[in-house]
């Protein structure tokens, strides 16, 4: 392979109380796809923020094509040929697809007026890479999260970078869109473009990357040729220990049916949905993005109530017209968008822990009981292994995995009967994933029925007692866990017979 395009030597970066990077070395070759892996808090994000000019290193050197560089802003990094697609979207909702992709770089005519025809033509050429049939003039707020993620990727590609850094690029993509992404990565690397690829989905790392650099606690563990490495070896190097049977085993029997949905429907999102849930059961919902799974979850929780259908709890019909109704009946909902809809990032861990159950912590005079609140938050910190020295710490300072644990813990205050979890480990590292699976198993063992929506087939197969597959707003099939396979679920979700 050709010479290095990026070389990092002895990078050190310290934040108040934390050394995020400690003498880190890294090399990226031209035309290479290089994975950076590690648990949340390992230093991956800090490293790419330094490469992208967002942070400045305290010590160390960066070389671009052999020449020493120092990027004092993202704009300077971009001008030098380094583009980053961050996990958190940076699109402007009210602007069109074309305006987002070519922001501040729109083609202009001789009078310095935007050439709309060229703008839309160039945008369409990029959209064709991912077989998107949206109009370039469509505001991005009308796109699904998956499509917005694609627009973010196209925005970076349109800059014709030398190095493209992808941070969890498939976290919101469908299987088909992921395949197209990998296909386009293959095409671009043949043209000499180098990629830094960050993902918690290790099968993706092995499929698309040549090498992987492992970071742990801000330090280099090593750079490995993936063809010489097994997934278990990579996991061990990331977490410093063996993870045996990540998904765990059922530790208690499944009890009686107690929650039932009959003929549920809402607009064009889903229709004629009927299923039951037993105490202590983990019921998996699989399907492609857009199949109606999340819309069903939001309706059951009262965020967008059902147009028709019935919900029964312990044999009694319940009417859920709002999230308040759902909480009153003991339904909890862990949203797929933890930062946008699930958590209060600017508030403390303690304040997030009690958010759905404020009434439970109110004294007779109506004031919140601070002693009980602190005690409850401390119990959750220990029970859910939330890595924070203080429950008064602002939630935004925690890693993604620990934020997800807070999101899970906050529903314990309502003593849930049913817990709906939508993409419970999205953007979470392999170590935290294992801990979250254990927590879900523990909750099921206590008799809580769990409805789990996930686009990760291995997660669905590993965790579910029973799997329902949705397609185009309808139930396409149902499988006991012992009969389910990846092939069967994919075929059912796609409407293909095998």
**Number of beta-strand segments:** 20
Most strands sheet: 6 strands, mixed
Work out the helix count.
17
How many whole angstroms does the radius of gyration measure? 24 Å
Secondary-structure class: alpha/beta
Number of domains: 2
**What's the CATH class of the largest domain, please?**
Alpha Beta
Termini distance? 41 Å
Q: Which spans of ≥5 residues are poorly predicted at pLDDT below 50?
A: none
User: Which of globular, elongated, flat, extended, rod-shaped describes the shape?
Assistant: globular
Fraction in helix: 25-40%
Strand content: 25-35%
Output the CATH topology of the largest domain: Rossmann fold
Corresponding CATH superfamily of the largest domain: P-loop containing nucleotide triphosphate hydrolases
Largest sheet strand order: 6-7-8-3-9-10
Any idea what the CATH architecture of the largest domain is? 3-Layer(aba) Sandwich
Write down the overall mean pLDDT.
89
